[in-house]
Design goal:
The protein is an all-alpha fold. Helices cover 75% and strands 3% of the residues. A hairpin with a 2-residue loop joins strand 1 and strand 2. The N and C termini lie far apart (41 Å).
Length: 288
């Protein structure tokens, strides 16, 4: 039970990473390979604010989330929108966006290595035990999970209870049909890309409260986000949440019963199994 709960707590933070990439790829049709670098950058900013200015990480969310939204909006407008305009079909846009964001990955990683070096970083925030069902868990993990849960619920209410959220879902389903009901597809795609970046940055802030991080680990989280999005189904919020929880539990089980060094191998194995047996996602249907 303690191992499963630990996996759920870890999966809660993974949920925000997956939701961020789900919005960017499912709505904007941008496969953002620099998604993990956004997360790592948020870890460093949170570390800097907490250790240098004693800013509580939960308060830091109110600064880092909006800042990441603006930065990702600018990235989409200046770098990716020209690719969208020239793309003749979805396949061409996906290839161009992969190449562009692959370059961004190394740019951001190089800037972080130049600024912070290759050392590992962490800090002490709510690092005290908390008892649940007879098991002892870090209070920082529990707080991070609850914060991620609140953000995920807020996103769900936005997508399913507001007109703007309905527009985002419409573009995700069929951009051409969305234009027929007066939805500005490009602005909606830019908004979804920026919102996805903000969610990923929030995930980085929460992970930094209990995770040791360094400048070059972003690609690992990008890979995890890809696994979760593939398992959950592109653009499917429900599937992304469930897949993130499953990945968190699998990592915890492998680390507890097999070897902590094999968690990455377990991630790859899960990715291959999903591609082979459930490529349409947990809630998707096979094409007729």
């Amino acid at each position: 039970m303690q191992i499963l709960l630990t996996g759920v707590l870890l999966g809660g933070a993974y949920t925000l990473i997956a939701l961020g990439l789900t919005l960017q790829y499912g709505v904007s049709r941008i496969m953002n390979l620099a998604n993990g670098e956004t997360l790592v950058a948020a870890c460093f900013v949170t570390f800097w604010l907490y250790t240098g200015y004693n800013v509580n990480p939960l308060v830091g969310l109110l600064l880092i989330g909006p800042a990441a939204f603006v930065i990702n909006w600018l990235i989409y407008t200046w770098l990716l929108l020209p690719l969208v305009k020239r793309a003749k079909n979805r396949g061409m846009l996906e290839v161009d966006s992969i190449l562009a964001t692959f370059g961004l990955l190394f740019l951001f990683q190089g800037l972080m290595l130049l600024t912070f070096g290759g050392d590992y970083f962490n800090y002490q925030f709510l690092a005290q035990p908390f008892s649940i069902l007879g098991g002892s868990f870090g209070l920082n993990r529990i707080v991070a999970f609850l914060a991620a849960l609140v953000i995920a619920i807020a996103l769900y209410l936005f997508l399913y209870r507001t007109d703007k959220g309905m527009a985002v879902r419409a573009v995700a389903i069929d951009p051409r049909s969305a234009r027929l009901v007066a939805i500005d597809v490009r602005k909606t795609a830019a908004f979804a890309f920026a919102l996805g970046g903000a969610l990923t940055a929030c995930a980085g802030t929460l992970l930094s409260t209990f995770y040791t991080f360094d400048s070059s680990m972003g690609v690992i989280f990008t890979m995890k986000a890809l696994i979760i999005v593939t398992m959950g189904g592109v653009g499917d919020v429900r599937g992304a949440v469930l897949a993130a929880l499953i990945l968190g539990m699998i990592e915890t089980l492998v680390a507890s019963f097999v070897d902590p060094g094999l968690t990455l191998a377990a991630n790859y194995a899960l990715f291959i199994l999903v591609l082979l047996f459930r490529p349409q996602g947990l809630f998707g249907r096979r094409p007729a």
